[in-house]
Specification:
mainly alpha, 4 helices, 0% strand, Arc_rbn_hlx_hlx
Length: 103
């Protein structure tokens, strides 16, 4: 729930340009309802977002991605190999020599 916000109303933008993007209809409807409850239009919210991108020189929030099951398994295996002191090689030749040597 958002408090009513009239701060951004009536902002005059010089040299305005348009941004066109395609998004899922349900996402747009949900976002429009939430922003409306905050007293914001979609355009105002996007403008605020872009101002924050410029001000912070990046995304104004953390973006995290949950790894797939396959990636999670590979990461777990790599961590386990690292803990057991597995061999590391500086070159392919070194790896091949290690694999073909009689130990």
């Amino acid at each position: 729930m958002c408090a009513q916000n009239d701060f951004f109303r009536g902002i005059y933008i010089m040299n305005a340009t348009n941004i066109n993007t395609r998004i899922d209809a349900e996402l747009k409807a949900d976002a429009t309802n939430i922003l409306g409850a905050c007293g914001l239009t979609m355009s105002t919210a996007i403008r605020i977002f872009l101002e924050q991108v410029v001000q912070t020189q990046g995304l104004p929030f953390d973006v995290k991605r949950t790894p797939s099951a396959k990636t999670a398994r590979a990461l777990k295996e790599a961590n386990e190999l690292e803990k057991t002191g597995s061999h590391r090689f500086d070159s392919i030749n070194g790896m091949v020599e290690d694999m073909t040597s009689d130990k």
